[in-house]
Each structure stands twice: as structure tokens, then as C-alpha cells.
Amino acid sequence: MSSQPSFARKLRMGLNFSALCCAPLALQAQEQSSVPDTLPGPQLASAVVTMAHFEVTGTRQQAQDYSTLKLSTKVIETPRSLTVIDASRLREQDFQSAGELLFWVPGINSNGDSYHFYARGFRMVPNDWKVDGFAGRVISGSYTPNLFGVETVSVLKGPAGLLYGATSSPGGQISLSSKKPKELPSTTVEVRVNSFDGGASHLGETTGTKLSLDTTGPLTRDGRLLYRFLSSNESAVSDPTIGDTNAFYRLSVTAKLDAAGKYQLTPMVEWSSEDREIRGPFLSPSSSRTTADNRTDYTLADLSARDVNLAAGNRVDENLTYGTDFIATLSDSWSANASLRYHERDYLLNSWAVQTATLRQEIAGDALSWTVKRRHTRAKSESSNLSLDLNTSYQAKWSASLHTTTQLGFNARRSDAFAFTGTNGADQSAINLYTGAMSSALVEDASPVLAFSSATRTYAWNAYLQNLTRLDEKWLLTLSTGLTGDQVSSGATTTVRHSDVKPNASLVYMPTPKASLYASYSTSYNLPTATYEDASGLTGRFSPIEGESLELGAKAEFLKDLVAASLALFDTQLNNTLVQSESNELNPNGNRYYRQLDAGRRSRGVELEFTVSPVKGWETTATYAYIDAHDRNARGERTYTAELTPRHALSLYSRYAFLKGKHSGWALRGGFIWQDERIGSALSASSTTTNKVIDPLRLDSFHRFDLGLSYRYHGWNFSLNIENLTNELYLVTGSTGLNLNPSRPRSYALRVAHTW
Asked: Which range of residues forms the domain containing residue 76?
């Protein structure tokens, strides 16, 4: 909207906000203070996970986690399947975006670089990505989040609606925890050179460069004012005339308001820009070109080359986030947390989209003469979120063996979304699928004027109460309940709704401090889209879509911590799903409508994760998942297999560091992933079922090898990472022969970092 302030102005507003919050606190931080032995809430979790496990590549059961269930408990005490990937592994495997790490988490599967991911067979949406507990960093149509500035990634499997509000599906949630200020001063400068994603496989042909800075430490002598500043500037060039650039800046300051550090305030501001080249789908003309011809095959040999970009143009995404976190330790038994975030994400699309209907063979009999046309399109989106998260916990010690912790929490979010569209141009410039040769130069024939399309404002809120009872440090019983509601305004229509009360319960038995058995029952609710019409043409009449999950599991560290392992068995289902009417079934308004069924998607399976450390400096992490996910009809009968969910999937990651001798400082790393065949077609969204695809594309099983080598010397760190070592060609996603997304070719990344 033209009346809204520019991003530059908003960035200055965010910086001024941080300065205003911190200035009076800096004046207070004059007296000497001692460092507390323990930190409250999220600070404790951050300190334990990132410092104590800085060189650990697998999920250790003694690690603290706060970001998922909002009670600072050890992983071994958490009654859910949980995978924690720390800063060490993020750096060592050179994960640049969150989508890259999904293959290494049991029960989770990637949808390429899309913001969608699949958890236990359920298609998850943008709000299921959380950054510091808040939704909004990822929006519909965007990419998976950039991992720069992320300290840990916690992946919770199963429903998460109790603590975070309405969620579209009960598959899971991914929480990204940002890097926070630290008391120990440290500065790291890093240069990264890599072969550009989507280009040729040889380093030097199409390269990208990245320069990043991470600096933290105290601002005052007494250590009561800490800071952290991060920046990243990336440029990847696949064509001399097209740039692909990304920038990221983040500043946060932690102020201890008292000498003991019981009251802490952390204001922050973050700005990022992603200017990306558009890459279109890869095509295979000899494969199934429709979804109704009873073919499920495809031909990799006839796939358009990976170094030929069939699309063109670019898309610019800009993000601005600012807010503050407040932590209060009111007494030894009572604590409180309050967080506020304002987040805005805008994108501008200016691209030439592939028009698959124009696919044709120019010369009969010439298998390499297939071409496809493109069409110039423009679009713009502006979205913003203002979010509040409050919770307070009180621990009562009834006896030496009986403790209870009660937590009351509330979170709310106001979301605004504005869409602008332009008139699309005409089909133009046919491009050869295999050579990239164009019939003529591309012309910007779409109107540069973007017209206002729609505006939606949503108020969403969630309240919850949970109680954790500990008995003899062997039994942990958690009982919790919550309520979710929202108000959606679109045009002249406003709908107010709320869910039923959501019950959750879990029981953990710990025969030893390093072993646990657990059972968990969890639920979630999704409030259907307010504009959906029923058979009578009325809106806002549908009941909440319900998720329900039962999980049994075990976690342990044994053989003197030689092995850390976790096992989960789950049965998760979605009920009250919406089914759209057929094209010839119209309501009195002349529109297709929705009906609600008691049946929905169901997923059952097993997840296994373990880390083995046979000698100091050598760790191997393995994961395995078996998932049987399918849709059910109104009678509860099994129908369609869930898309992009392999029945079997495994990963293996091993790292060996030389700690002594003449090879001291060197480290070797290797990774392997394998996935069973899966359905490629998006048969349905997990919460809204549409007409089914007659012949869903079946994607073959695949495997991939990765390799890494690094050397550390006096604060210097040199590393080489090679992804897809054998240069395997396989499909990551795909719906038809006209929309195939193959794996990246063999890619290299060289990193040089210096820390002081």
C-alpha cells in the first residue's frame, strides 16, 4: 500500500525501537554483577544446547529444550518424538535453508524448496514454521527459511496446536531458535564460495559467494549489557545479466535489569532481502502429460537439462522483524516470560512462467526439438504480523519427592495480507527444453501497474493451561488443555469462531536418569477458511477440523553414553475434513461448495533415531522412519496413499575428528540418505480434500552421498563440503511430466572462517 512506510524507514524505526529499549538499561548497568549459575526459561535452554553440545552432531537426550513444549525440560523427559539439530551440525553439513535438513529428520519429508513440508504424511503450511516461537516468517508462496542466524532447529512430531494455536494438520512443527547475545566475547568472519544451486555441477562455471559476520559479547564491564550482531551478503550468478543476491542483518541486545540477572530484556531488529532468479519446472515430454491418461511413468533420460533454465525473471522478498523478549524470575518457584514481535514480509514477482499447455515437438521425429512458451507475469504481496506471547510458571514442592509445575499461557496474533495483481502478457519466446535456445528475446509485455486484488485481516488467539507433576523423579505426568479462536475479515465479510477445548495428556516413566518410557495423547484444531460456502451457500458454518494423535516411545543413553537412542510409535489422524463438490455440483450462489466428513487422513508408523560414539571425536547419527499414511472415505475405508511420504526412509551421518597427533585439527564427515518410492502428485491438502487425481505420478526411490573435510588451526576453520557426491539424478518432487523437480547436481562449497 502506498500509504505504508518504506522498508528503509521501517528498518530505522526498528533500530530506534531497540535503542530506546536499551538506552535506559545501559545507564542502569553500572554496578558490578555476578553471573548467575542458572538462567531462566529460554536462556537456560540456549546456554545448555549450544555450549555444552557445540561439537555434538546428533540429538543427545540430556540436552534442554524449551522451544517446543514451553517448559524447560530435557529431551529425555519430553513425551514426544523430538529431533534437535544444533549449530555445530548446521555448520558442518553446510545447511543454508531449512528445507535442506528435512531429509535428515525421521518422519519429515521435503517438498523441494517450497515452504510446504510433510510431517508424518501430513502437508504442513507456512505457520508450521516458527521462528523463536512466532509464525509469520514464512508465508504462502515463499521459500523455506534461510538458516543464517539460527542456533538450533527443533522438530516436534505430532500435534502442536495446544501451545501455539490453530494448525492445519497434526503432523508436526519446526522451531528455529535465533542466535542470542552471549557473555563470552567472540567474533567470526566467514567467506563461502559454492557452485550455484540449479546450475552446472562444476565449481567455477556458476559460482556463488557469501560473506558473513557474527559478533557477540558484553557492552559494559559488569556484563549486564550484552549484544549480538549478524550480517550476511550473498551473491550467486548463473547468467552475466541476472543476479541472485541475498542480504541479512540482525541486532539483539540483552540487558540484565538487576545484578543477579533475574530480570532480562532482549530487544531485537532484523532485516533481510532475497532477490532470487526464477527457476521453472523441469519437463519430460515422453512422460505422462496429464493426470487423467492412466500413466504414472516418467523418463529421466528425456528430462530437460539442469543447466537450462526454462523460466526467467526474478522475485524479491523483503523481511523486517523487530520486537523484544522479557524474562522474569520472580522467585525460586515463580517465573514469567513475555515476547512481542512485529514481522512484515513483502514480495514482488516479475517473471516469465512456463506455459505447459504450449509444449510441442517442432520437428517430427526429432526427439530434441521439443519447445515450450513462457508468459510474462507480475504480482505483489504485502503481509504483516503483530504477535504477543505470554506465559507464567509456578513450581510447588509438596515434599522431597513430589513437585508440580503449573503454566498458564496466552498468545495472540493480528495478521494483515494484501494482494496485488497485474495483467499477464501473451505467450512468447518458445525455448528448447534441451539447449535453452529461444525463438526470440523475451519482452516485458505485462502491465507494470499492479492493481489491488484483496485484503484479509485475521485476529487469532490461543490460551492454554498445563501442569507437570514429578514423583520420585521417576514419574512425570503432564495434563493440559487449551482453547483457540479467530476473527477473519475479508471484504465485507467478518467471521468469528473458536475451537472446542483441546485436551492433551502424557506420562513419562524414568527407571534411571538416562532412560525413559512415555505415552502421549495430543490434539489440534484447525478453523476452516471463513469464505468456504456450504450446500446452502452460507459461509462460516463448518466445525473445526480436528487432529488427534497417540504416541508411545522410549529414549535412553546407555553403555556409558556410547549410544543415545529414541523410538516412537504413533497413530495420527485428521477428522472433520472438508471435501469440495464436483464441478457440476453447485449451490444456490452458483458456486462449488464444501461438505464436511468425519473421515480424513490417517498416519501410522515408527520413528527411530540414535547416535553412537565409539571413541572420543567420532559420532554417527542414524535415523529411520516407517510411515503408512492414507486418506479415508466417509465410511472410514482406506482410499488414497498420502503424497510425498515414502513408506521407508533412512539417513546416516558420521563425523570423525582427529584430536591428537600430527593430524590434529582435521575432521572427516560423510552422509547418506535413502528414500523409498512415493506418490508425487499432490492428491489433496491435508486439511481440505479436492477431487482426486486418477493417475498420480509415482516417484522412484533414490539415494544420495555427501562428503565433507575440514581443518582447524588457531581460530581458523577451512572446510569443503560436497553434496550428491556421485551426481545422482532423481526426482525430489513432481506431479506430472510437465512439473518435475530433479535433485541438485553435484555441488561444492568452500568455507574459510576466522574466530577471535
From this structure: 7-755
